[in-house]
Write a structure and sequence with these properties.
Number of domains: 1
Number of helices: 4
Order of helices and strands: HEEHHHEEE
Low-confidence stretches: 1-7
CATH architecture: 2-Layer Sandwich
Largest sheet: 5 strands, antiparallel
Distance between the termini: 16 Å
Number of strands: 5
CATH topology: Beta-Lactamase
CATH class: Alpha Beta
Shape: globular
Structural class: alpha+beta
Radius of gyration: 13 Å
Amino acid sequence: MVNQPRTSLVNRLVETDHRGRILYATPEAGAVFGISSRDLVGRDLLGLFHDERQLRSVLRAVIANDRPMEAATITNESKIEIRMTATRLDARRVRWRLVRADEG
């Protein structure tokens, strides 16, 4: 088994607006969802997860408090557990870093 380079974890980034609509996604982030990064743009990131309410709370807190927050491990539509860290870019944009739970 070949280990993936650690940089692939760093490159799993999604940028959303203040409502959770995807503005930009790296190809590595798209691979987590099994969707091309191009097809992710315009979709509701939070709607891709079972616990959408938890993520909406994190999104609101990050926008309001201007400090990074980690969401608990959540499961996407493909049953993959993902840890997400949200960082406010400005008053209307948030960057989400995605890490599959099975990758540590």
